[in-house]
Design goal:
By secondary structure, the chain is mainly α. The chain is built from six helices and two strands. The chain has a two-stranded antiparallel ribbon with strand order 1-2. Helix 1 crosses helix 3. The longest helix is centred in the N-terminal third of the chain and has 36 residues. The two termini are 27 Å apart. The mean pLDDT is 90.
Amino acid sequence: MIVTAPRIRAARWPAVRPWIGLAARLGLATVWLVAGAAKIGDLAASGRAVNAYQLLPYDVATVVGAALPFVELALGAILLVGLATRLAAGVSAALLVVFVAGIVSAWSRGLAIDCGCFGSGGQLAAGQAPSYLPEILRDLGFLALAGFLLIWPRTPVSVDGWLTGEPAVEDDDE
């Protein structure tokens, strides 16, 4: 019997899917940990970065900006250990959609700001041009990682797997 290429690829998917998920989980964890760590040292600057989007009242923007690094660090830590992976991926996806919408909004309104995604952000100096398209594409890439984990949250080397005692490789019947 001759095995066709699609059948071979289909047979490999259940074996490689958990490892792709592990890479997605650790990649997304790294993103959140780096983003949160970059902002945690100056919460006021993080608040100013959120306020630069001009979407929220100043007081609300500063509170959101001050809380955001802690949310990012918590998501990063949870994803790093693989605890409640689907929930963390869902929260990640929601945040990333909000971030993309904020950047699109700033771009469409002609604001010249740094997104503040991995640092203080805020208004750009005169003559500096924002880099909205690369920021949107980057966040869409991160959103793809979160989407993968929403669909296939079980990964090797995770607290989820340890708690349930289930292997990361799922049945083909899903």
